[in-house]
Amino acid sequence: METWGSYGAMVLVQLAYGGSNILMKIAIDRGLNQLVFVVYRHIIAILLLGPFAYVLERKQRPSLSFSVMMKIFVLASLGTTIHLNVYYAGLAYTSATVASALSNVIPSLTFLMAVLFGMEKVRIQSPRGRAKVLGTIICIGGALTFTFWKGGYLFKSFMEIPLINIYSTKGSTSQLNHGGKNWIKGSALILVSHIAWSSWLILQAVVYKLYPALLSLNVLICFFASLQSSFLALFFARNPALWKLEWNVQLLTIIYSGVVISGLVYYLQTWCISKKGPVFASMFSPLLLVIVGIFSVVAFAERLHLGSLIGAFLIIAGLYIVLWGKRTDGLSQALRGSEKGLVDDDKIMLEISVNDPSGTNPITNQMK
Hints:
Elements: H1 2-29, H2 34-56, H3 66-91, H4 96-102, H5 106-116, H6 127-148, H7 173-179, H8 183-210, H9 214-236, H10 249-276, H11 278-282, H12 286-299, H13 306-355
Helix pairs in contact: 1-10, 1-12, 2-9, 2-10, 3-8, 3-9, 4-12, 5-8, 6-13, 9-10, 12-13
């Protein structure tokens, strides 16, 4: 049940991230500053999670040493301050679909870091080792296919007119998609943000062992993230008009991200990492591409190329190949654990039989 719960939680996480990508793209193109957004978002998360963390984890929360606090500070820097601000800066130069496609470098980066730090072991001779390597390569290949190969056939969109016009305040869609965007700059910024995110996944697994209080850990991450982004805002978002909130899509994006992403999703993701490890959590990121791609076709009337569909198929195939490898790892560990238990029991029985001077049978409690 716990295994299926981890799968379901990570699917919900990617659905939530998909909604955040769409809303954030709309909000940025309508004037939302990413530093202001990150500060407001994490303040909302602190107000939401803080009371629950104080009440529910009062007895199990460990003491906060200076060393652990510094690790959490670095964790907030990597996973929120650097990742989010750089990612949203890159998103301003690209589309939500392309940004989601580039997120598929996360599994390979996390896998590589986990191997380097000894958190993940790969045995190429074993089927599960080959499956994890092959699945990662297929995932990345599918993402590159989706992004760079359009194919010769353009599928007609389901919608003739977009349900949502992202660029209503800045010009036509075609101008922004082709003439007004620096795709290389945006892609580079997003890739840098994903390096920080992969590091966050690895470090979070380490920090959780030192501070195993999920709610309190997430509150501290949000607290440090709000402080760090507030400091950056003193230099890059000093205009008071940027901090003014109105009843519009910008406010909806802030509330959604604060409650759903920084509140619920961060908790679910931390829980999954504590149970299954960082590589398991990162391997669900390809689903984000499919979710955002389908939504963009329906809501934004984007037209899919043959290469996009082939790339999406490769991403899903690679995802499940890696998950099969991870699943086999779990079953093998459980089998080894049960075999070890049987061996230990045999050793105990042997010691009792040898050392018992009365010659009593430890099973039947009768004299031999």
